[in-house]
Amino acid sequence: MIETKLTELLEDTADHTPVGPPPLAAVRAGAARRRRRRTAGITGVTVVAVGAVIAGSSLLTSPTQTAPVTSPTPVPPPPAMRLVGFGHAAIAIPAAWPTNKSSCGTPYQDTVQIDDPSAVHLCKSDRPKGVESVQLTGVPPSLGYHADETILVDGVRAERQRTSCMGGWQGTRVCIGAVGIPSLKVWFYAESSTSAEDVDRILDRIQILRDRSGVPSYSSLGGAPTGPLARSYTPLLTAAGLKVQYKRVMSPSYPDGTVLGVSPAVGTLLPVGSTVTVTVAG
């Protein structure tokens, strides 16, 4: 009796329940959510696995890894140089060196001394530390110059005064050396208040130039009380392979023929055969 009533109730409910197409959109959405959950799970496992591999590789390789290679400190380029000289003998000096930066003949900064006008002043000037200089003269330096040994400079006989240093307690320690080439009538006198090695380095840059010639000095030639005479200077220019052109100016203060100046300046390197203009009183 109960079963018969239950069957009738179910059949009656089915007759009154609407039947439509299956909910495909909902099914697909549920399937997509399930796929995303599975993919996320797989991706997480993959990341963990890859991380474990990387960590393991690091543990395996780290003991044998070397320090990263660093580039060596770049070596600064050598300074630009220029040549100064008398005749065929010249010396290379830094291009930035000025001429005759001195007081009473004593340099107060790196410089080349050529006919230094301050040297005639009878005063005392202290040389600062770290100053290098080279002096060119047409006669042996007067401050105790002597030849300790004979050397060759590009095949030409020269005399070398060994470098020595003085001072160092209260005053500035100054190192001095010289090279003379008597056959060319030129002496190079180097000083440094840094080290003896700096003096030797300067003097090692002397060279003989057959195709070029430095305008020689005239200040040490003597002559008239007021200055050297052109007749004594002209042979030096000729011996250096340079031509001479005179420029005469009226000057009541100097005797006729006194050398008042030259152009290009003394010490300038020129091709052999170049003309030097000598200004003379007349």
From TrEMBL:
Signal peptide: none annotated. Residues 236-281 form the PASTA domain. Keywords: Membrane, Transmembrane, Transmembrane helix. The chain crosses the membrane at residues 40-60. It holds the Pfam family PASTA. It comes from the Bacteria. This is PASTA domain-containing protein.
